[in-house]
Design a protein that fits this description.
The complex is a heterodimer. By secondary structure, chain A is α+β, with helices and mostly antiparallel strands. Chain A has one domain (2-35, 84-293, 363-424): Cytochrome P450 (Cytochrome p450, Orthogonal Bundle). Chain A has helices at 20-24, 29-38, 59-66, 85-91, 101-110, 115-119, 122-139, 144-149, 151-161, 168-179, 208-222, 231-236, 247-278, 280-287, 295-307, 338-341, 377-394, and strands at residues 2-4, 41-44, 53-56, 72-73, 141-143, 312-317, 321-323, 326-328, 333-337, 353-355, 395-400, 405-406, 415-417, 419-424. In chain A, the strands form 5 sheets. Chain A has a 5-stranded mixed beta sheet with strand order 2-3-9-6-4. A 3-stranded antiparallel beta sheet of chain A has the order 5-14-11. Chain A has a two-stranded antiparallel sheet with strand order 1-10. In chain A, strand 12 (405-406) and strand 13 (415-417) form a beta hairpin. In chain A, helix 11 (208-222) crosses helix 13. The longest helix of chain A has 32 residues, at 247-278. By secondary structure, chain B is α+β, with helices and mostly antiparallel strands. Chain B has a single domain (2-108), classed as Roll (Ubiquitin-like (UB roll)), CATH 3.10.20. Helix content of chain B is 17%, strand content 29%. Chain B is built from 2 helices and 5 strands; from the N terminus they run E-E-H-E-H-E-E. In chain B, strands 2-1-5-3-4 form a 5-stranded mixed beta sheet. The longest helix of chain B has 11 residues, at 66-76. Chain B starts with a strand and ends in a 6-residue tail after the last strand. The chains are: A alpha+beta, B alpha+beta. At the A-B interface, helix 5 of A face helix 2 of B.
């Protein structure tokens, strides 16, 4: 059950991986393959005034760096952007902390995202998919990212954490402004084109961060003396040890959840739909597969490897470290490229083929192997699987009718527009 | 070097020679054993490499730390016994002779 398809690909073997513009043309697979083969720990100069960084592109090395948080710290930021100490302190989420500070918060949040708890949401998620996919199929010709992949995650996440359905569209738009802060389609405050200095203390250096802070504060107040039976209420309660989240910890978590909980799942769905629309074999195979068949589990993992929406995280060396004969110095920035690792020929056989039954798929799209592995990974897996299952039940055909467009970002990889024709089943 | 005996969910047994530094999750994944997913890649975050340690010969295992205990309580069972462990947190050390680990994932615990 193997089918080779062309991944979205920017063919420039010497692509500038620091430039947001590069990724608007698709992920530069050839440039990363060259780095994996010739210079797996490459020094990259930054053209925007940044100090430069080490680019780690092989699977094994990414896992090594990701698994050494004492040496490769997240506590000076996880994006390549340089931040002052004051900016970092004001904006940091638990993503930008190291153990043991990170561990404490992570365990507080983990309560709401366990596999056991998330699995109970499947019927509810299926219902949401029904509503949104039916609307899209009725329209016929749609931008599948906009009408399906962009709408589903916040509706699902909102039901789980406890925000009202009617707020979902606004929350998504604010989330887009924050995390897609390098794409003019999503924000007026493009980070590398507009002076965003006055927003430097807000999440993602974006004015939308303030709106999300205020919204999160309001949600918190609603639950102060009233358990609403949702994940937010649970997270605001002290844990078994009596520990409680501070106001800033909660607000930053809320902002992170709205931003990161939306776009990565969106782009995993968009990439999956792109693969399905362009490969009749994948369409036919999955359409005839019952929901409870094991191939859905392997196909979902493969779709997520294929999408790899979080392209990199940045770490900062806390001591000197040698990798492939290169001397990483204390204070140097190090980018670990999960997307490159997920296409590393040394780890994955035939990585440029989407193999629905790929066995033992140890992809690192969720940052696996380090303390910052994605908190929402069970929700994301469930959402992608159920959305594709429900979509395939409702259509007899999916055709891409115009070229897709990619997000302008060197951080998040995604198909932001996917024009398709959906033929009702 | 130590011998790890995995007892799979169907009751069959698999013996694997493990080097010092290898952990029980990665060893199982590298040998394609059913029942170990390692969904978080060994980050002590998910519980999908859960095993019950039935015996250890030679150097004994250290007890679970707080984080492993919290994950087991949240992902497996609040009343999980002390030999309920995450494979990613058990690393082969000098002096270990053998370990017997029963694979016991979420669905059959």
């Amino acid at each position: 059950m193997v089918k080779t398809v062309s991944p979205n690909n920017n063919d420039d073997i010497n692509a500038d991986i620091t430039s947001h513009d590069t990724f608007e043309k698709g992920f530069p697979h050839l440039a990363f393959k060259r780095m994996r083969d010739e210079d797996p720990c490459a020094w990259i100069d930054e053209t925007d005034g940044g100090s430069g960084f080490w680019s780690v592109s092989r699977y094994k090395d990414i896992k090594e760096v990701n698994g050494l948080p004492k040496i490769f710290s997240s506590a000076q930021g996880i994006r390549l952007e340089e931040q002052s100490k004051e900016e970092y302190e004001a904006r940091k989420t638990f993503q930008e902390t190291d153990p043991p500070v990170h561990t404490r918060q992570r365990m507080m949040f983990h309560r709401g995202f366990t596999r056991k708890l998330i699995s109970t949401y499947e019927p509810m998620i299926r219902d949401i998919c029904n509503d949104i996919i039916n609307e899209a199929v009725d329209l016929g010709e749609v931008d599948a990212t906009k009408e399906i992949a962009r709408k589903l995650p916040m509706r699902m996440l909102g039901r789980v954490v406890g925000t009202p359905d009617e707020d979902a569209e606004w929350l998504v738009s604010r989330g887009d402004s924050m995390i897609a802060n390098s794409d003019p389609d999503f924000t007026d405050y493009v980070i590398d084109k507009v002076d965003t200095d006055e927003y430097r203390f807000l999440p993602f250096r974006s004015p939308a961060g303030k709106e999300i802070y205020d919204y999160g504060e309001k949600q918190k107040r609603l639950r102060e003396n009233h358990d609403m039976g949702d994940v937010m209420s649970m997270l605001l309660q002290p844990n078994k040890q009596g520990d409680k989240l501070s106001d800033l910890e909660f607000k930053n978590f809320f902002a992170l959840m709205v931003a990161a909980g939306n776009d990565t799942t969106r782009y995993s769905m968009a990439s999956s739909m792109h693969a399905i629309a362009n490969n009749p074999y994948i369409f036919d195979c999955l359409k005839s597969t019952p929901d409870d068949a094991p191939v859905w589990a392997s196909a979902t993992e493969e779709f997520i490897r294929w999408a790899s929406p979080t392209m990199h995280f940045r770490r900062t060396a806390t001591e000197d470290y040698e990798l492939h004969g290169k001397q990483i110095r204390e204070g140097d920035k190090v980018a670990i490229w999960f997307t490159s690792g997920n296409y590393d020929e040394r780890k994955f056989s035939d990585p440029f083929s989407l193999i629905l039954e790929r066995e033992n798929n140890q992809h690192i799209a969720f940052g696996q192997g380090g303390p910052h592995a994605c908190l929402g990974m069970w929700l994301a897996r469930l959402e992608v699987r159920v959305a594709m299952q429900e979509l395939l039940k409702r259509v007899s055909k999916i055709e891409q009718i115009a070229p897709e467009k990619y997000l302008r970002s060197n951080f998040i990889r995604g198909i932001k527009n996917l024009p398709v024709r959906l033929t009702s089943a | 070097m130590a011998t790890v005996k995995y007892i799979l969910e169907d009751g069959s047994e698999v013996l694997i020679e493990a080097d010092v530094g290898q952990n029980l999750m990665q060893l199982a994944l590298d040998n394609n054993l059913d029942g170990i997913e390692g969904a978080c890649g060994g980050s002590c975050m998910c519980g999908t490499c859960h095993v019950l340690i039935e015996s250890v010969k030679g150097k004994q295992l250290e007890e679970r730390d707080e984080m492993e205990t919290i994950i087991i309580e949240m992902e497996i069972d609040e009343l999980a016994p002390p030999n309920s462990r995450l494979g990613c947190q058990i690393t082969i050390q000098e002096g270990m002779e053998s370990i017997t680990a029963r694979i016991a994932n979420l669905s059959n615990f």
